[in-house]
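Quick one:
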Amino acid sequence: MTDPLTRPTFDGRAFIGGQRVGACSGAVFDCISPVDGRVLTQVARCNQADVELAVQAARTAFADRRWAGKAPAQRKRILIKFAELIHAHGDELALTETLDMGKPVKYAKGVDVSSTANCMRWYGEALDKVYDQIAPTPDTALALITREPVGVVGVIVPWNYPMIMAAWKIAPALAVGNSVVLKPSEKSPLTALRLAELALQAGVPPGVLNVVPGYGPEAGSPLALHMDVDCIAFTGSTRVGKQIHVMAGQSNLKRAWTELGGKSPNIVFADCPNLDRAVEAAVGSIFFNQGESCNAPSRLFVEASIKDAFLDKALALVPGYQPANPLDKNTVMGALVDTTQLNTVMRYIESGQAEGAKLLAGGAAVQPVAGGCYVQPTIFDGVRNDMTIAREEIFGPVLSVLSFTDVADVVRQANQSIYGLQAAVWTRDINKAHGVARALRAGTVHVNQYDEDDITVPFGGYKQSGVGRDKSLHAFDKYTETKTTWIRIDSPL
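Output:
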């Protein structure tokens, strides 16, 4: 366990034009650790003036082509070096992430750091392997179809996976030659600021990657409304995502890509091929990252004939997920990001009980570390699809269990949501697996597993779970313009 008395010091200043700078106003806010309530540092409280400087720096860098003008092979080498630096500073970044937002340090290092480095490396490797096209024109013409960077990309990321969410956006955006202004969540801004320093050290020119910490209305909104930002990429709540789209339309009709909330259904049929694996996936996925995951399988549909057996196995696993000090290498569930989120989760738990759901496990706030923000892993049975805990995204370790007897009915219930991010089907019947997977309105459908993942596959959702896809080669489409160059050929023959 890391001794809190030996915690590192952090630089909370913004990163603009390749330099650390305070907010123009001089304002700061306290960055408080949810591990124990201590203040980690003070962070620059950026506003419109700071966003203006960051966008100007990004526009200048894009216009003089100090990054976009580099050969793909050069950008590739720099992004791979960036990935290597992320890996080399993995212990530092993992500790920072844990102290800043409360996740267990074992996962901050083994998942967040490794995934961030892998994402940066993958897009670096991919950027010089994506070819442009020539259209099938008559002999009298040559039509070239080429990709060009959109220009200045604004990125706004959430607090639950600060490094990974940033990497999913800045890696493809940088790979194709854009300049970026990143606004991290005010609840977990520290790793984004450190990543910008590492990017500069790797060789990303000054002004190409800028970071403006601050609150959404003060820094995020000016970024989304800025007339010189060509694209805005956002991950967060559906409520704010809708505002982002409105602001994009109110300003310069910039592209708006939004990865939003989820209430993912996890459907377990009686012919599930491995009940133990299904139970472990259901429990592990909802309690991973303290339930603070947009793709968490928070609605568990279990066929009635196996529900009791399933719940017996699930409840037996709950003691292994009791929250503990995130700095302990053996901890698997840490702290919620702050007291606001803790209070939100507790209100949902109270709502579930008030609306008649049966509390099987958890349901209480606890303090394994004094001053921290912790809640027990919680399971509700007897949940109806119209209950608040089955409809709204809780973003905490709360599992709602529903039973079913009919395939068509469970598909109807699963789709009866404003969200459509992910889903899962557990069955040994290949026809049922394909049929249900096709019927589910979700961006990703898992079959006989949950949350297995790779950078090579796209991530995003249907309905109010957002617009566009992160990850894979599909992400390049978000940060490039497609240009047609039509050349007339007058044959001398």
